[in-house]
Amino acid sequence: MNDDDFLVEADKSIQLLNAIDRSAYWPSALLSLMDHRIGEVCDLHLLATPLQRQVFVSALSAKSAVVLSDYSIRMAMASVRKNSETLLVHGLVALVMHLDWPWTDPRDSFFAEQVMISHSAVKMGVELDRLFHIAAEVTIRQSTKDLVYPPRTTASDVTPLNHIWWAETEGPAGLVYYLKGKPIPEGHLMSVEGNRNDTYT
């Protein structure tokens, strides 16, 4: 994609991310219309050149960076429910975008999301080295790349969630990751097929 076309699409993506009401998006059912649209943002980032990625990530706001982090956790759940490696890659790319945001300290924001994505990959039989290599290829900051690759979790870690503040359960619609001691959002217990009210921007 040439730079002019990329800038047009990147501007649309920034507007989309900035318009998301996080308080409504995070607890909404999977996979929502907004999940699909953020997935398209991740595809744009995957296809971009290194310079285009740098321009795009630099234009993120604090709000949009956090939305990308939320999306990464949602895709860690959705990928297992749908047995979709594409959703898992999207979640990891969104996490990398969040980590590459200039005002993020990757060391403070990586571990829990990485564990959940790795845990989901192991459940699906996705090879971790290949998965995290894809993410490393789209990083901007060396500090992000050093965290992302090689992967910190291996397939032999059968209970990695024991090491973080998150836990897992099986809901009516499939896998749920939730904060220990906190109620599970109702939307995470269902799919969009069971809840068509997914227009929340």
Structural class: mainly alpha
The amount of helix comes to: 55-70%
Low-pLDDT residue spans: 194-201
Largest beta sheet, briefly? Answer: 2 strands, antiparallel
Task: Count helical runs.
Answer: 10
Number of strands: 2
What value does the Rg take, in angstroms? Answer: 16 Å
Mean pLDDT: 87
**What share of residues are in beta strands?**
5-15%
- What is the domain tally? 1
Strand/helix succession: HHHHHHHHHHEE
Strand order of the largest sheet: 1-2
Notes on the structure:
With 201 residues, this protein is mostly helical. It has helices spanning 3-19, 22-25, 33-47, 50-58, 62-82, 85-100, 106-109, 111-124, 128-137, 142-148; strands at 166-171, 174-179. The chain has one domain (3-158). The protein is built from ten helices and two strands, in the order H-H-H-H-H-H-H-H-H-H-E-E. Helix 1 packs antiparallel against helix 3 (33-47), helix 5 runs antiparallel to helix 6 (85-100) and helix 5 runs parallel beside helix 8.
